[in-house]
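Mods, move this if it's the wrong board.
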Amino acid sequence: MNAFINKINENLRENKLIYIIITITFIIGLILGVYSTLYMSQSSKSDVTSYFNSFVSSVSDKQINYKDLVIESVKNNLIFFVSILLLGLIFIGAPFVLLIVLGKGFLIGFSFSLLVNVLGNRGIGLALIALLPQNIVIVPFIIICSSLSIQFSMAKLKSKFTKSIMSNEAIVSYINFYLFSAVFLVAGIFLETYIVPNLMKIIIKKFYV
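Not the wrong board. Structure tokens:
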């Protein structure tokens, strides 16, 4: 684990600009997500409010279906994980990696803003509980993986111009990093599936029912 962390720190020092670009892209996505809820129609907001009120009224008695939550979380997170991995293997992948990071930021910003928009100040606490725990793990993981994907994609692009061939060892090392870093993805999925729903249930029972 220490070797893995040292490798990340070294990569961060050597590729600061790429990390800065990815972080800025993510923040832009967040901002776009937040602002998009301001342009929702009143009927859409009413639908969300009705759905949430229905959810609140049933949550105290409803058993959490962990199996469905695990499947949904794995499916959603694997889309980002696999897409970023594969895009690093093609020489035109870098711009698409940034689009994925932008999309992730947008989804988080939209979800947070929607709860706050619909529920007012009461929605801030719920939004933080619903989004913060798993994303503390998943977002840095996505930023690191996105940086490595862009670096690898750019290296492949460079090899196209220099007519050089990228070694199989470099490709295996790149894929191995992803397989090892999947432990952080698993941690995020665990938080999203088992911790967050129970925290939301406690908060809703205490403040919203």
